[in-house]
Amino acid sequence: MPTLVIHARDDAVHPLSEGLALAEGIPGAQFVMLESGNHVILPQEPAWDVLFSEIRDFAAPNGAQP
């Protein structure tokens, strides 16, 4: 099953190592690191646009752009 794991570099709740370990434990998982210190990405952060761009790209069938 295609899996996307997204984690903030400086997540204040869970360290980056946990996101990396999760992705490594899922065969074929794609890992994306966001530049943020927040556990929940906020709309005013630059990481917000990256987050939704990565989700759109991952969910697009055969890499099709919306």
Structural summary, described in words:
The chain is an alpha+beta fold. The chain has one domain. It has a two-stranded parallel sheet. Helix 1 links the parallel strand 1 and strand 2. The radius of gyration is 12 Å and the shape is flat. 9% of the residues are buried.
Layout of strands and helices, then pairs:
Layout: E1 4-8, H1 16-24, E2 30-34, H2 46-59
Parallel strand pairs: 1-2
Short structural summary:
The chain is of the alpha+beta class.
What is the strand tally? 2
Can you tell me the number of structural domains? Answer: 1
Order of helices and strands: EHEH
As laid out across the biggest beta sheet, the strand order is 1-2
Q: How much of the polypeptide forms β-strand, as a percent range? A: 15-25%
Envelope shape: flat
| Average of pLDDT | 93
* Main beta-sheet annotation: 2 strands, parallel
Distance between the termini: 22 Å
In the predicted model, the low-confidence regions spanning at least 5 consecutive residues are none
Label the structural class. Answer: alpha+beta
Q: What integer value in Å does the Rg equal?
A: 12 Å
Helix content: 25-40%
Q: Which labels suit this protein?
A:
66 residues, two-stranded parallel ribbon, 35% helix
